[in-house]
Amino acid sequence: MSEPGLLSDLLVLFALSVIAALAFHRLRLPPIVGFLITGVISGPYGFGLIRNVTDVESLAEIGVILLLFTVGLEFSLQHLARIRRFLIIGGAAQVGLTIAVTACLARLLAVAWPVAVFLGMLVALSSTAITLRLYAERGELDTPFGNAALAILIFQDLCVVPMMLLTPALAGGGRSATALAATLLEAVLFIAATVVAARLVVPRILHLVAATRRREVFLLTIVLFCLGTAWASARVGLSLALGAFIAGIVIADSEYSQQALSDMIPLREVFNSLFFISIGMLFDIRTVARSPVLILCAILAVIAVKFLVTSGTSLALGQSVRPAVATGLGLAQIGEFSFVLSAAGMSAGILDERLDQLFLAVAVGTMALTPSLIAIAPGAGALFERRIPSPWRRRNPQAAPGPSTDSPIADHVIVVGFGFNGRNLARVLRDVGIAYRVIDSNATIARQERRRGEPVLYGDASSAEILHHAGIDRARVLVVAISDIAATRATVAAARRLNPHIYVIVRTRYMREMQSLTQLGSGEVIPEEFETAIEVFTRVLRRYLVPRDVIEREVRHVRGEFDDMFRPLAEAGARVEDLSRFLTDVTLVVMRVERGAAASDEPLSDVRFRERSGATVVAIQRDGGGLVASPSGDEILRAGDTVLLMGRTDQLERAATLLRGRGAS
């Protein structure tokens, strides 16, 4: 029996990967850096533990394909349409300016123009695999800077094709203009055909496969579609990763996207670790020993150039300082497709062996620093925001027609973020007649919504000027409904400084973020993770026909544990809105008296409100003004009055039937 060479190599790599991952977990560092070090140790320039590097690199390509496929599954064509401004304008500006700046710097070092331009092309590309992986782990893919980074990365992947075609031309050869145009036309037709398939063919195929109810058949179909689209993409001159991303977007528009994502994640994690290991294998540690100062300066120069260009582009496209800095730091590394491009440059004679190894050392160095750069992005954004001049921090919010946000307003709600949660809150506030102002950091959304009549202010809500413009000193409630946890913390802290009495409600994703937000002064923190858990077990119990009072008891029990964990009682007194926390089975609610209600237009004693419902009327807020506290039985409820009631859940339900109009269900 022949020796299983590839199997032996995989055993060595996975063993070293597990050790590195555990070690870096203890050090609280991302495992990606451990995988890169594993590659350096086991590769041909390290201890030479791997005999067949080519096979490992082939498996690593599958890791990149699966990563981009799963990223595409979490997006859709509609989502890409929303970020098209960053994709087209931002991507073109980032790539073009990076090439120009890098080429000029290289020319100052007496590098020939063709080589300088080629080096600019290598530096312009960022790592899609590393950046999106880290953003996904941190839950930041859906943040403003996450969307901006994704758009620019997609454009960079599209640029791989013309860059590969231009490489021979820089070396003095190359294909004719007709051949170049034909290749680009093939790429455009491929993307168009894939989009058509997303609408017509793929949903029908997946429906037929899902009807078999065989999970292995469904998984094989998804893998076939992923790898097949990537292969077809490579055949027309596009990158494998871009084809996989397009395949993911196609399936994302179907009803089977979540199942496909859950099936592919385990495969992605295994193969993706091989990708980072293969990158480490390319690195010759002796290059660093020969020129440590040169490599360090080159790494810092690359990071500085890419950070300044990308952040500047983001600012020019309307991002505020904090997300612009985060976008710049997230894309400050050299990408994996630069290795493919450098190999083409070696074949064409543009790069020599020494320059190629110098490039590899710089590329691996920037990749290894990426987790740290992304980790410090929130603090760096706050620092830049404090240090740069005020005109750069605040852009003109009145750039588009719409309702004035300068008119005096008081006792209103400030809504930060006009996504799904913010949009629905604004609709409800508008329906019930509560004044509000919206702050959103997306200039396009702000402009569009102001045209539709929404009082939306463009800017960074953590900025004191923007909060003052929204009337923070006169507002009663601040609701922060954005995905960027760093921006959320900064907004809460700034609002609390400017108005110590404002009530702050924060929506966040994870329960682990609650403590820091509460310490900053949030009155209520609503974690989606917790609310989803309650909704899930509530629906399960309903499916089993568990009585409603039992379900509500369990909900109160869970929320009680939640309060004990995250909302300890104050040492001195409590607010009125916290009173229900001390009353085990009693709740305080506010209800409005509807026209034609059974309890209206007669004294409370005559309608026997307490006897019929069991609830107690604590206070009445008259529709025309005036408050009646502890009303007697002679008080009469009128349509439009607001009533504060106290009682158990079942008593309050009976009271609600007495306060509804006769036509209400």
Classify the beta-strand content into a percent band: 5-15%
Assembly type of the shown chains? single chain
Q: Which structural class do you get from the secondary structure elements? A: alpha/beta
CATH class of the largest domain: Mainly Alpha
Average predicted local confidence, pLDDT: 80
Structural shape:
elongated
Q: What about the largest sheet?
A: 6 strands, parallel
Number of helices: 29
Termini separation = 78 Å
Radius of gyration: 30 Å
Overall description:
The longest helix is centred in the middle third of the chain and has 35 residues, at 353-387. The strands form two sheets. A six-stranded parallel β-sheet has the order 3-2-1-4-5-6, sandwiched between helices. A four-stranded antiparallel β-sheet has the order 7-10-8-9. The protein has helices spanning 5-26, 31-42, 53-73, 77-82, 84-108, 113-124, 128-137, 144-170, 177-200, 202-211, 215-235, 240-252, 257-281, 285-290, 292-316, 321-330, 337-348, 353-387, 390-393, 420-432, 443-451, 464-469, 485-498, 514-520, 528-543, 548-566, 604-607, 609-613, 649-659, and strands spanning 413-416, 436-440, 456-458, 477-480, 503-508, 524-527, 587-592, 616-621, 627-629, 642-647. It is built from 29 helices and ten strands. The chain folds into three domains: 5-387, Up-down Bundle (Na+/H+ antiporter like fold); 413-566, 3-Layer(aba) Sandwich (Rossmann fold); 578-659, Alpha-Beta Plaits. Residues 394-404 and 568-577 have low confidence and may be disordered. It is an alpha/beta fold. 64% of the residues lie in helices and 7% in strands.
